[in-house]
Amino acid sequence: MAIKTYGTMAVDWEQRIDFDRLRRERLDRAKALLKKSEMGALLCFDMNNVRYITATHIGTWAQDKANRFTLLPQDDEPILWDFGSAAKHHQLYAPWLGEK
Fold first, then answer.
1. Could you tell me the pLDDT band of residue 100, with boundaries at 50, 70 and 90?
2. Torsion of CA 50, 93, 85, 97, to 10 degrees
3. Is 80 exposed, middle or buried (0-12, 13-18, 19+ CB in 10 A)?
4. What is the domain partition of the chain in residue ranges?
5. Buried (b) or exposed (e) across 41-62, using 16+ Cβ within 10 A?
6. pTM for this predicted structure
7. What dihedral angle (degrees, nearest 10) is formed by the CA atoms of 72, 70, 78, 43?
8. What is the structure's pLDDT at 84?
9. pLDDT value at position 1?
């Protein structure tokens, strides 16, 4: 009997990784922990934290750049500050970020 695996690529002919669910659940977990804390918002500079909250990635060259960050207010959606070309890319290809 074969072991079910999701493969490494998204395809249209079978259900594999549900990226919308992955993004939603990551953000929900971050919001739940923020809600349990006494903080009003979470400001993240680390590229891994920014990726976890916003599901965006611009490469490892940006890992030490403090001018790429995200703000997660307790009762709102994340706000992402990014480099010019990356910000434009997110507007075009990351609809889950909304208008902020």
1. low
2. -40
3. buried
4. 40-97
5. ebebeebebbebbbbbebeeee
6. 0.82
7. 0
8. 82
9. 63
